[in-house]
Prior knowledge:
4 strands, 3 domains, four-stranded mixed beta sheet, Glutaredoxin
Amino acid sequence: MKIRAVDKQKIEEYARSLLDAAQGEGRAPLDVQQIRHAVKFSPEVLDVLARMKREQDLPLLEQVYGDLKTLLDEGDETITVDVTTAVPMNAELRRKVRDKCAADFGAPIFLVEHVEPKILGGIIIEARGHRRDASIRAQLVNIRKTLSSSFMGGDEA
Length: 157
């Protein structure tokens, strides 16, 4: 694989950042071994770890590992569904979303709720690599594209 010059710069920056952090806490050899294994992580694992870091939940990692192992051992078939709304969901909406997703997927549902005011309203549902975006923001973007291409003869407005 040929590495572009811009990527070489990024690679060195990342490596030096990791080295500085590891040396600062006296754990450089251990971090090198951990990174060697981390290259095998799926994007989903990396996303969860990044979220845990953002939310300062890394101290919970050992307990998360324990729960994950338990769920795997029990053969749990619950589907995790990420739900994004502009404001927190109330109990009734939460029940409706869970029931609808359970009917659609034919399995128990575990909701992970996100509040993102930028979507303006509506809901975004993500599960098993599928995304349903019924947010006001997405609808406005679609309306703009339609109007732009229909009335202005192109994609630019």
